[in-house]
Amino acid sequence: FIAWLIVLLSESNRTPCDYSESESELVSGISVEYSSILFLVIFACEYLIMFIFSWVSFIVFWSINEILIVINLMLFVVMRGSFSRLRFDIFVSVVWNYCVVVILIYLICLFSLL
Transmembrane region positions (predicted)? Predict the structure, then answer.
């Protein structure tokens, strides 16, 4: 689940993994070029992606209780408030040295049981 959560954070461009946006882009980029409905649609799509990822996580991992989708959405909020941005080289080394290794070990164990 933790590897899945890291993938979701990077795919939805949340705090530890938001390298596609820079500070100058946040100040004068999309907020100046778009206004009104177009800005609202783009802004809402980012949060809709988080909601869809939380819904898919709920279906895949915890199809027990519907309240757990709210807990998964709260994980996004906690991650955004808890972690600062990592440098890109540190993030890439963490992914290659830890996440890929853990996922490969999990897959080896899973397929060895079959």
Answer: 34-53, 59-78, 90-113
Q: Is residue 91 part of a domain?
A: no
Q: pTM, whole model, 2 decimals?
A: 0.50
Q: What is the pLDDT of residues 19-39, one digit of tens each?
A: 555 555 555 555 566 667 777
- The whole-number pLDDT of residue 6 equals 73
For residue 39, being part of any structural domain is answered with yes
Token pair of 87 as six digits: 């440098």
Does 104 reside within a domain? no
Rounded CA-CA distance 113/105 in Å is 12
Distance CA 106, CA 114 (A): 13
Number of domains in the chain: 1
Closest CA to 9 of 103, 93, 79: 79
Residue span of the structural domain in which 52 resides: 2-86
Token pair for 11 = 């795919």
Q: Are 104 and 30 in contact (CB under 8 A)?
A: no
